[in-house]
Amino acid sequence: MKITVVGGGPGGLYFSILTKKAIPDCDITVYERNKADDAFGFGVVFSDETLSEFLTRDPKSYDLIRNRFAYWDELDVARNGEKVRITGNGFCGCSRKTLLQLLQQRCLEEGVNLKFEANVDDISQFKDSDIIVAADGINSAIREQFASDFGTNIELQSNRFVWMGSTKPLDAFTYFFRETPHGTFVAHTYQYEEGMSTWIFETTDETWKKAGFSVTDEEDTINKISEIFKEELDGHALITNRSHWRQFPVITNKKWSAGNIVLLGDSKATAHYSIGSGTKLAMECAIALADSVIKHKTDTKAVFENYEKLRRNRVEVIQHAANVSLEWFQNMDRHIQHDFMQFAFSVMTRAKKVTFENLALRDPSFPKKVLAEFNTNAGNENLQTSPAFTSYKLRNVKLENRIVMSPMEQYSAVNGLVNDWHLMHYGSRAVGGIGLILTEATAISPTGRITPGCPGIWNNEQVEAWERVTDFIHLNSAAKIGIQIGHSGRKGAVKFPWEGNNEPLDNAWGLMSASPIPFNDKMAVPVEMTQEDMDIITSEFVTAAQNADKAGFDMIELQAHHGFLLASFLSPLTNIRTDEFGGSIENRLKFPLRVFKEMRAAFNSDKPMSVRISACDWAENGITEADVIAISKAFKDAGADIINVSTGLTVANQKPVVGRMWQTPFSDMVRNTVHVPTITAGYIQDIDQINTILLNGRADLVALGKTLLLDPSFVRNAQAYEQHKADNLEALGIPKPYSFATSHLYPYRGGERKMLEGMKKALKPLTHKK
């Protein structure tokens, strides 16, 4: 078998070593365009987990690397001279040049052919090769030549970064943040060998331009950066090596192979350096490709299928985490405003993989500092109170905890009347300890319903039915209950979801919207609202607000999300009007803002109002970040006490990127740009995620939807898991008939947590510290 490897980076070399070891008679040649001792960049980073993999695959390579790396267990976050240390991280740094030399040595020992200063322009010269491995980096010429076959996509990110070295000694991986008159700069730094450290400087494009940098002027860059990080460098010089300012390219490929060519390393997929995974990713993929070749030999179709099966999911997970981390750094100026411990916690948990509990297992002292700062700011005497179980006040309404029941349609009302189902549904969650219940969307009129099973608040009979629910909750729990009031707009008059997804009713009522655009090709074209329609709808919203107060609700949430009537005015995808209610975001806001203001004036001034918005349409030419900021600011100025930040469902052809806590970045954007309290939601499933979100400052309240549907006692179980008020269980407000269960639940959940933590500690990779 003959294999040609184009590109002599760590991935290509390691693949060659592993394959040649297993198949000694395989002819493997590596072609590298640079000299053997050329290396760009300074140090590379590996985790304990990756080192363990190296040990099992090629102990000789592992020993060579291990004897030359700088190991650290500590990570520091520093801002403007203030610093905190977090231990238990387990990483090592190694000189990229040294790593390449060690891997070259191992290649020669195994009989791999190495050809340097061999630039490959034409791969037709390798037509006799069974496999051609394109390991030629970010700017892969081979990938570009066959880009349509691979389905290559490259997205250049906005931040600017420059890679340098220094003689400054470091005893921990350190993020140095500095605020300047131009904006925030960060230095990602780590020591990779004695007397040498890597320094990657990063800032936003706007700040970079304000500071007057140029791409290739290394002398100017050194002068300016050395002044900004004067204290951190402590008199040590910066060292350049083609240190030009760049913007990071996020590279993906729909297919990793074409014919007998296969992609490896950065040519295949890039991962932002902020999670230290570029070289790691390349070498781990090299392992999978080698395993596939060893298993299937010259059956290239089977080799490449197995390679993708082994690695695609893992690569995409790492890329997603890297992109989330990258996004955090693109918004440094938003996060820098937090108090220091919260800011440091945000740095540590930015990619969502690391959580509060995860950090507590690594280094219990750091989360305690973060908790103490949070509780001090919240005015709590107990500085270690779980964030989820701290109280929160909106106007004169005090919530006992920060967990919210998200609006979830029940489709169980008859003629708009709630019934025993709703009493059970909302009552059980209230007794289960929830801080705030937000009801399902409740219509202002019969034609404002989504389905025939949706509740209403347009007449006295409905007020009395709702009052039965609110009275039960106030009598039997400490929960507060808010009503989401809305109008379905163009998304109304549909069957129950179990009868069909967005299927219109056989005898559908007339629909209205901002513009005459149907939600899908099955539904009717809505009527474009006139000024007279707006007057009637506004009056109905005001009546609903007054009825909500009569029904005993503690709060109102205005439905202005997911493409319903008011939301249809806000998105450019659903509002194509040419009058005063279309065009600019100021115009698109006019009608929704009028409705809110008139409701606010009619509703009890002691009670809060929320607005739920969609902060992203997940579709081309949809609502922009600037639009969302303008919308949130307008509602805040009009008296909204909190913004419930959701996304999507504006149009049927949306393509959301869904995952754990996937909507929290949008809440973060609104909260920390507009400086208004927010509620967040979206695949939030446990108390650790809730605490992580709150400590991060991404939201003030956290809403759970499907998590609560089959677990009405989620909060009680979480309180026991956290041992919240274990010394004063009566203060939990559990109804007396249920209170006896705490003597069983608290020890059980406490023991369960200890067992889980023990398992996590046992699964932690062994340290490779020398």
Automatic annotation (TrEMBL):
UniProt xrefs under InterPro entries: Aldolase_TIM (IPR013785), FAD-bd (IPR002938), FAD/NAD-bd_sf (IPR036188), OxRdtase_FMN_N (IPR001155), YqjM-like (IPR044152)
Show where the FAD-binding domain sits.
128-316
Molecular functions per Gene Ontology: FAD binding; FMN binding; NADP binding; NADPH dehydrogenase activity
Record-annotated NADH:flavin oxidoreductase/NADH oxidase N-terminal domain positions: 389-719
Q: Which residues form the signal peptide?
A: none
Q: Name one Pfam family in it.
A: Oxidored_FMN
Q: Which PANTHER family match?
A: BLR3436 PROTEIN, NADPH DEHYDROGENASE C23G7.10C-RELATED
- The entry's protein name is Bifunctional salicylyl-CoA 5-hydroxylase/oxidoreductase
The taxonomy runs: Bacteria, Pseudomonadati, Bacteroidota, Flavobacteriia, Flavobacteriales
